[in-house]
Amino acid sequence: MSGSVLFDAPGPRALARQRIYTVLAGVLLVASVVWVVVRLEQNGQFEYQKWEPFVSPVYIEAILVDGVLETLKMAFSAILLAVGFGVVFGIGKLSEHAWARWPCWAVVEFWRAVPVLLAMIFIWNLLGTDKDSSPYWAVVLALMLYNGAVLAEVFRAGINAVPKGQAEAAYALGMRKTQVMLTILLPQAVKIMLPALISQCVVALKDTALGYVVLAPGLTYVARLIYSNPQFGQNQIPTVFVVGTIYIILNLILTAIATWVQKRFVGEKKVLEVSMVGEDDPSARAPR
Amino acid sequence: MELFWEHREAIALAFAYTVLLFLFAGIGSMVLGTVLAAMRVGPIPVLRWAGTLYVHLVRNTPLVIVIIFFRIAAPKIDLKFNFVDVVIPTGVGDVRLNNIFTACVVGLTIYTAAFVCEALRSGVNAVPLGQAEAARAIGLPFSGVMTQVVLPQAFRATIPPLANVQIALLKNTTVAGALGVAEAFVRMRLLIKNNPAELWTLFIGFALIFVILVEVLSFISHRLERRVRVS
């Protein structure tokens, strides 16, 4: 491979050696795949009975409607709410007033550091564990809080990434703070942070699987129904395989969209970098 | 507050599980992630593809699914971890590292390794090509190029993303709780169940302990970063 920082362009001897390694590695990989397949076969994982739910229309419909659709619904409600949360607290963190900046900072830091599951169980109990709708909202609200806190950071970084001259020029024209933020900074920042926003959608989509714990609807719920049904003879492996594949496909689609948006709107510039938890000190970050 | 004092031993035990999960999976994911990163930046195309495939598959699968695989599905094909059974006696109860614990550690390791690999790879990619070319031009051998020029710079660029990955791992250990390890999340759920009136106190208390743990990790990473910083 040319252009690697690690290696010089290989000469004839290195090339010969690399060819040997390639063959060895290839054989090893193929052998391990074969071993896995044989192992699955020996344990009867390819029996029709175990795969039956994934070829019978009733179950396919259940997987698509109760599984994929519910999961997507949860993910998108969570992201929509999280964007709202993120805008409010992201702008709050940039406020000139310490009384607004500090609470926003505390809220964002808190929700970024708390595991989503803890928040989920808390909200589930808060809403009442006996109500039918509470698992759904527990997942959505917990994901809103976590992703919203992350997005607040993204928004802040995005607004800070807008060239300084833009705000200065707007102030020079006599615009008010709100006007500068809404008409000058935010529209430009949105463009910069779109890819980061879509990557966060991938995180939210993956985290909906945590709904497993609060018995929320979605793919993991359908999966549990299928593999605990004795009729299919303990088909945990096929179920995990199918559900995993569905998640992977959904996420790859989202990632492809993010890449496209990055190319289309942002160009080859670097993806926005977001600071980690506990990194910033709001007092040190005076507003412009 | 007295609720925490009353259950302090059980809570400490639960967090011992959390920390153990984090340590084992952290070390495991660093080792596996380094191997994967080496595969992905190495000169052998087959290994590069394999590494890329691994990262793309694992990164896009929810952690719950990965752990469910090792906890619930794998035993069906006789992939069990029954050979592990370590009991660490403490004054307030045993810490049992059994097959369930191991399955969760393996799941966390497999999952986190993909992210560690990407963090390391981004570090290597952050080193400008000219650095290695200049090092070769002044006659440094391969080992010199690596140890004197490329790796120190790569390592420096790697610390913040690696710290982020490990912080995420610490938070992800709660998922192991959902699948049978008696760690902090399980303890909180139990306490909430037994004391529904104390919901807010319990949640904020447990959350703050997690915040403290995360801040400790973040602090360590900052010290490391400052130590290796140039200028």
TrEMBL record, chain A:
It is found in: Cell membrane. It is a multi-pass membrane protein. SUPFAM superfamilies: MetI-like. The keyword Protein biosynthesis does not apply. The chain crosses the membrane at residues 20-38, 74-92, 104-124, 136-159, 180-198, 210-227, 239-261. InterPro entries: AA_ABC_transptr_permease_3TM, ArtM/GltK/GlnP/TcyL/YhdX-like, MetI-like, MetI-like_sf. GO terms for molecular function: transmembrane transporter activity. GO terms for biological process: amino acid transport. Keywords: Cell membrane, Membrane, Transmembrane, Transmembrane helix, Transport. It holds the Pfam family BPD_transp_1. GO terms for cellular component: ATP-binding cassette (ABC) transporter complex. Belongs to the binding-protein-dependent transport system permease family. This is Amino acid ABC transporter permease. It comes from Nocardioides silvaticus. The lineage of its organism: Bacteria, Bacillati, Actinomycetota, Actinomycetes, Propionibacteriales.
From TrEMBL, chain B:
InterPro entries: AA_ABC_transptr_permease_3TM, ArtM/GltK/GlnP/TcyL/YhdX-like, MetI-like, MetI-like_sf. The keyword Cytoplasm does not apply. The chain crosses the membrane at residues 12-41, 53-74, 95-116, 199-220. One of its GO terms (molecular function) is transmembrane transporter activity. Pfam families: BPD_transp_1. It is a multi-pass membrane protein. GO terms for cellular component: ATP-binding cassette (ABC) transporter complex. Keywords: Amino-acid transport, Cell membrane, Membrane, Transmembrane, Transmembrane helix, Transport. Residues 15-221 form the ABC transmembrane type-1 domain. CDD domains: TM_PBP2. It is found in: Cell membrane. One of its GO terms (biological process) is amino acid transport. Belongs to the binding-protein-dependent transport system permease family. HisMQ subfamily. NCBIfam families: HEQRo_perm_3TM. This is Glutamate ABC transporter permease. It comes from Nocardioides silvaticus.
